[in-house]
Design a protein that fits this description.
Helix content: 10-25%
Number of helices: 10
Shape: globular
Largest sheet: 6 strands, antiparallel
Radius of gyration: 24 Å
Structural class: alpha+beta
């Protein structure tokens, strides 16, 4: 999966003195374990080329995050030095990815009559897709959403190598909303309208989002052709499913892609362009079955993720897209966050981290480090330098601390959308950073 770098992130890092090594797999649809061993070889090769005091930040985008996770955990189990201080997962499906089940059956139904559908069917039947999709089409169609056995097999293999690497700092980026924002349609809503009728042929290929628990149709297909070709039809109704298609998450424009494909008969109409591809709870590997979990509203969110730092968007974004907000956060983690691993020396001065999420609505978290016990003050100012809110004013112990701002001023009123500054005053030092409040 190609990262959509709209912020020139790699160019920025290279100008800042970093070398970038990009791994493209010969077959990205192969078993993830096999591609993980390719990464193991690459890391060993890179290690042999760099000075002994240099180390690595390993960033895996989409499926690459799971591959990197497996590779690093495997190397630690086998006692292979990966020399990695930061492992970053970028919109990766730690708890599965999603392609609407109705679209999968659409592809299956039309695969013998459409080269595009046949190609997509081949991709959906690949080992990697079977390892990743939370619901995978079955033959014959099942009455419930279910994943392929390869998903369980990969989970077993991942657990056998340690699940997650222990040495690096672990960071995760989600392109999905952390505020429970859906995809603009409800569970069970129709996604694709495809109906054509003539004297010679009648065709139906309608798709619906998976329902939320109750029974619901996800695909209705018909090919009624003039003699001598046999007619075919397929109707798929499922129940007990979770609303993955409409859930918060990094998006994929599968419906828009179908809409833009020229059909041999009639016109395929997308009633909604995009669906959830990587649920936010999956990208952050949250210990929650609630796809609409209020991540931003949980002050203890770090207690239910294996990552040391997380970033999520305010609204759903295109999968693996680099935005101004996550680019700044990624740069910070690479340049600053990787120093906070294992044998870190105690800081000699206060350290203020970039808030996350950023941009945010309505709540954001601010982390900082106190080199020694003392009074600390965290204040929010607007662009004119006017004090908006005092978040913290008190005596703190040495170490890491977190506060949050709910986007309200000192009188409890909602602050206007826009640019703000937050300032830490502690131990004789004043540190300031920018943040953006969205509405």
């Amino acid at each position: 999966m190609c990262i959509r770098d709209r912020e020139n992130l790699i160019e920025y890092l290279r100008n800042d003195g970093y070398d970038a090594v990009v791994l493209n797999f010969t077959d990205a649809t192969d078993y993830m374990q096999r591609n993980a061993y390719v990464l193991v070889e690459l890391l060993q090769h890179v290690r042999s080329l760099i000075p002994a005091h240099h180390d690595l930040a390993v960033i895996g985008a989409s499926m690459g995050g799971l591959i990197a996770r497996y590779a690093l955990a495997y190397m630690e189990r086998e006692g292979i030095d990966h020399r990695t201080r930061l492992f970053m997962s970028f919109d990766s499906p730690h708890r599965g990815a999603n392609i609407p089940l109705g679209i999968q059956y659409w592809v299956e139904f039309f695969s013998e009559d459409s080269a595009e559908a046949a190609f997509l069917k081949d991709r959906l039947d690949s080992p990697a897709a079977r390892q990743l999709l939370v619901y995978h089409a079955t033959d014959p169609p099942g009455s419930t959403g279910e994943h392929d056995p390869l998903m369980d097999a990969f989970s077993t293999d991942l657990a056998a190598v340690g699940d997650y690497p222990e040495i690096p700092r672990k960071a995760a980026v989600a392109n999905g909303s952390g505020y429970g924002a859906g995809q603009g349609f409800a569970a069970g809503d129709q996604l694709i309208l495809y109906e054509y009728s003539s004297l010679l042929v009648d065709i139906i290929g309608n798709v619906w989002a998976v329902p939320d628990g109750l029974p619901g149709m996800v695909f209705d297909g018909l090919m009624d052709l003039i003699w001598p070709l046999p007619d075919s039809d397929m109707q798929v109704v499922v129940s007990g499913t979770d609303p993955y298609d409409s859930a918060p998450g990094g998006t994929r424009a599968s419906m828009a892609q179908m809409d833009s494909t020229e059909a041999p008969y009639g016109d395929i109409a997308a009633l909604h362009e995009s669906h959830c591809f990587i649920p936010t709870v999956s990208a952050l590997d949250l210990e929650s079955a609630d796809l609409f979990y209020d991540i931003a509203g949980d002050p203890s969110i770090m207690d239910i993720t294996p990552f040391d730092a997380i970033y999520y968007a305010a609204t759903n974004e295109e999968h693996v897209t680099i935005t101004p907000g996550n680019a700044a956060w990624i740069i910070y983690e690479i340049e600053q966050g990787v120093t906070g691993i294992g044998k870190e020396e105690p800081p000699q001065a206060p350290f203020l981290r970039q808030n996350y999420p950023n941009p945010f609505n309505p709540r954001t978290r601010i982390d900082f480090v106190m080199p020694s016990a003392g009074r600390a003050n965290v204040t929010v100012f607007d662009v004119r330098g006017r004090r908006v809110a005092t978040i913290l004013d008190g005596v703190l112990d040495e170490g890491r601390h977190s506060v949050s701002w709910d986007g309200r001023d000192s009188q409890g009123r909602s602050a206007a959308a826009g640019l703000y500054f937050y300032r830490l005053e502690a131990c004789g030092t004043v540190l300031t950073r920018k943040m953006v409040l969205m509405k």
